């Protein structure tokens, strides 16, 4: 028996997660320290996929697998604040739901039938199968870096690759760190990521600087021992690509080196994070036995 009440959510209630916040997913890392327990649960309903995001809707004919996540009483507000920071209101709305005498909060899709695909046809199981973390990285790996030419075609290709790489990184940092404040706040948190620090030391061997195209006095230096400045460096290269009106040979070498380093760093961070998530998932799976 399933009942739904459209009310303000009660933070004291557990959260039913069917998507990004399940153990094993990236966003679970943002709430794991607040979790009291997480148990597998199957409820009536159905899922659709819109732009890589799963949306829940009512259904009497389908069942949805997920986790019922209870939070430590002293961290309930923090947990729901983090969840809210990742769930845009245009896509989701909170509801209180009751299934088999269990009450919980759940995120429903807003107008789930519009522009959505059947999740079974898409074969979506985990955020780790997101095309940005699979196909996009493969595309970047398959496109070779070319030597500089004055027609600037090789440079333009490098710039395209670098911008796609930053799209992948921004996708990750949003899922991992979205606490409001936009990309600048997420970048600050990412600069503190242990895997990012390890990768810098692994893949960056020389120090160099870049100047802002908008302010020639604004210099940012890449240094493997300074994660924040290093991330600022890579981001400044990105900003210069979007603002620069002309390009020269030096730009080609700078973008090429930055791309090669940041590509390896990104793969390292994703691989390490995925391994961490898989360990967490196995721990919670073991608890249900």
Report on the architecture of this protein.
By secondary structure, the protein is of the alpha+beta class. The protein has two domains: 2-121, Hypothetical upf0131 protein ytfp, CATH 3.10.490; 130-276, no CATH class. Helix content is 43%, strand content 21%. It has eight helices and eleven strands. The chain has helices spanning 76-86, 119-122, 135-142, 153-177, 182-191, 194-203, 227-243, 249-287, and strands spanning 2-5, 15-17, 35-44, 46-50, 53-57, 63-71, 92-99, 102-109, 117-118, 208-211, 219-222. It has a three-stranded antiparallel β-sheet, with no helix packed on it. Strands 2-6-3 form a three-stranded antiparallel β-sheet, with helices on one face. A hairpin with a 2-residue loop joins β7 (92-99) and β8 (102-109). α4 packs across α5. The longest helix has 39 residues, at 249-287. The radius of gyration is 22 Å and the shape is elongated. The two termini are 26 Å apart. The model has no long low-confidence stretch (mean pLDDT 88).
Short account of what is shown:
This protein has 289 residues and is α+β, with helices and mostly antiparallel strands. The chain is 43% helix and 21% strand.
Proportion of residues in extended strands:
15-25%
Low-confidence sequence ranges: none
- The total domain count is 2
Side by side, the strands of the main sheet go 1-7-8
Shape: elongated
Radius of gyration: 22 Å
Task: Name the average pLDDT.
Answer: 88
Please report the total strand number as a whole number: 11
Distance between the termini: 26 Å
Order of helices and strands: EEEEEEHEEEHHHHHEEHH
How many DSSP H or I helices? 8
The percentage helix is 40-55%
Characterize the biggest β-sheet. 3 strands, antiparallel
Structural class: alpha+beta
């Amino acid at each position: 028996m399933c009942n739904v009440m459209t009310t303000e959510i009660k933070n004291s209630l557990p959260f039913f997660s069917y998507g990004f916040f399940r153990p094993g997913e990236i966003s679970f890392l943002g709430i794991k320290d607040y979790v009291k327990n997480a148990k597998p649960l199957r409820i009536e309903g159905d899922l659709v996929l819109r732009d890589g995001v799963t949306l829940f809707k009512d259904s009497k004919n389908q069942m949805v697998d997920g986790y019922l996540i209870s939070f430590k009483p002293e961290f309930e507000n923090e947990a729901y604040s983090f969840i809210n920071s990742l769930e845009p209101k245009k896509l989701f709305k909170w509801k209180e739901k009751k299934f088999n005498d269990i009450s919980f909060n759940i995120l429903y899709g807003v107008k789930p039938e519009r522009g959505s695909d059947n999740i079974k046809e898409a074969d979506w199981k985990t955020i780790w199968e997101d095309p940005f973390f699979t196909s996009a990285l493969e595309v970047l790996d398959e496109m070779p870096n070319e030597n500089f030419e004055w027609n600037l075609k090789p440079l333009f290709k490098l710039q395209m690759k670098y911008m796609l790489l930053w799209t992948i990184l921004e996708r990750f940092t949003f899922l991992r760190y979205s606490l409001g404040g936009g990309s600048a706040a997420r970048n600050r948190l990412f600069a503190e990521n242990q895997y990012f620090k390890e990768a810098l030391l692994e893949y960056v061997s020389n120090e160099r600087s870049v100047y802002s195209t908008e302010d020639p006095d604004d210099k940012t230096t890449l240094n493997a021992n300074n994660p924040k400045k290093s991330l600022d460096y890579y981001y400044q290269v990105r900003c210069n690509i979007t603002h620069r009106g002309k390009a020269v040979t030096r730009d080609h070498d700078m973008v090429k080196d930055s791309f090669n380093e940041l590509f390896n760093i990104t793969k390292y961070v994703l691989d390490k994070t995925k391994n961490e998530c898989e360990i967490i998932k196995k721990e919670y799976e073991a608890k249900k036995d």
